[in-house]
Backbone:
């Protein structure tokens, strides 16, 4: 089936089978391998991208369902070679160790801060409920999101 | 993981979705948010050969004030229901319920109609549906009909929906005072036990999910209610309590009483 969508600001048209998930589409058809596939059953959140401005688990969206939508992946966050403030904060405050969950964490954090520019620690933790990290114990991730909020508001 | 082969059809109207469903019968499944169906298809627990996507049907998508009730279209997402001012003001127990389903990403995609039709025994909505005495409106090739909350849920993944029927909307009578409390399954965020309670005149209505294979009205609690929390001891009267690797029968029975008590405390 022919789909047309915007990915990181570029219009993309491809022929896909209905079985293709959005995560496979991004990785296999567009070579955007920053979107990671963890559990592949919508529990872990590693594959989170934004679809029409909302964080979604791309392993549980069919590419055909994303037809006509606007997708932003981790590759689409930086501008002119400089990291997005959320990426910068994760780097600066050790919000990652192995890094596998990081693209999903960052995309969800972007969603949290879009809806709530000044989240409390509890709101950040609630917002990150759908993203698993097996390394950090979450504290530095939460700290990174708090610092990202500050720099976005500055 | 890749699901087994299927054809995908995007329906543009309720009538078209129903006619496709009649045409394909048991081979077809309705796709709404897909957050229960797609993982099940990847795991090959479900292998429909046709998916009928109703996600783009606007007529299924709004939340409206109907005077004595709030009507939510089947395609309303958990996020929309949790954040709707109409729902917050008039059926707060529903808003509280939607807010604790899954996680942010799931709430953006999952829909109330999809969740109800799927009828996972650990899903959250049934408790609020039962406690508010909501009505589920469905449509099929034989026309539209309303199904009461107590008749709708019939067992694990089993509802009163006919083979070619889809849920169109859910009507929630306005309720002033209500609450939903749950014990989260720690990984999936499903309800190991979930209890919704609302004031109903001098009495209460209590809906319980996660405890039995079918969500139920805790009539024994409702009858024993005396304004205190002691009625919570009747939470599982006459109920066949489930047992699984998350919670044994004994533990789940204990949790049911604890969470009914917590709900009653908040009324």
Residues:
């Amino acid at each position: 089936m022919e789909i047309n969508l915007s990915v990181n600001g570029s219009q993309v048209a491809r022929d896909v089978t209905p079985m293709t998930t959005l995560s496979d589409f991004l990785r296999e058809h567009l070579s955007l391998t920053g979107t990671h596939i963890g559990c592949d059953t919508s529990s872990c959140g590693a594959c989170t991208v934004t679809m029409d401005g909302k964080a979604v688990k791309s392993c549980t969206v069919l590419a055909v369902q994303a037809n006509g939508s606007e997708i932003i992946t981790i590759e689409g966050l930086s501008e002119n070679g400089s990291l997005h403030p959320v990426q910068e904060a994760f780097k600066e405050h050790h919000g990652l160790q192995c890094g596998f969950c990081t693209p999903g964490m960052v995309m969800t954090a972007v969603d949290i801060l879009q809806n709530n520019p000044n989240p409390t620690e509890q709101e950040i933790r609630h917002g990150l409920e759908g993203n698993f990290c097996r390394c950090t114990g979450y504290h530095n991730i939460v700290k990174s999101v708090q610092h990202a909020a500050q720099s976005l508001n500055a | 993981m890749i699901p087994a082969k299927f054809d995908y059809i995007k329906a543009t109207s309720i009538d078209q979705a129903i006619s496709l469903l009649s045409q394909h019968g048991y081979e077809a499944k309705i796709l709404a948010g897909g957050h229960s169906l797609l993982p099940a298809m990847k795991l090959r627990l479900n292998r429909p050969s046709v998916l009928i996507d109703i996600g783009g049907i606007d007529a299924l998508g709004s939340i409206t004030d109907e005077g004595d009730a709030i009507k939510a279209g089947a395609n309303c997402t958990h996020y929309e229901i949790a954040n709707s001012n109409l729902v917050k003001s008039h059926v707060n127990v529903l808003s509280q319920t939607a807010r604790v389903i899954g996680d942010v990403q799931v709430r953006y995609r999952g829909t109330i109609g999809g969740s109800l039709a799927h009828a996972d025994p650990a899903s959250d909505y049934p408790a609020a549906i039962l406690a508010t005495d909501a009505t589920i409106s469905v449509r099929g090739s034989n026309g539209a009909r309303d199904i009461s909350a107590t008749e709708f849920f019939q067992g694990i993944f089993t509802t009163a929906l006919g083979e070619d029927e889809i849920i169109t909307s859910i009507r929630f009578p306005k309720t002033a005072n209500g609450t939903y409390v749950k014990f989260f399954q720690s990984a999936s965020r499903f309800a190991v036990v979930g209890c919704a309670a609302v004031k109903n005149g001098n009495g209460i209505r209590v809906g319980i999910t996660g405890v039995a294979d079918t969500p139920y009205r805790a009539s024994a609690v409702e009858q024993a209610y005396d304004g205190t929390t002691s009625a919570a001891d009747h939470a599982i009267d006459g109920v066949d309590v489930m047992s699984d690797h998350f919670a044994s029968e004994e533990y789940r029975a204990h949790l049911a009483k604890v969470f009914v008590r917590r709900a009653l405390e908040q009324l």
Notes: The first strand of chain B starts at residue 7 and ends at 10. Residues 58-173 of chain B form a domain with the Uridine Diphospho-n-acetylenolpyruvylglucosamine Reductase; domain 3 fold (CATH 3.30.465.10). Chain B has a mean pLDDT of 96.
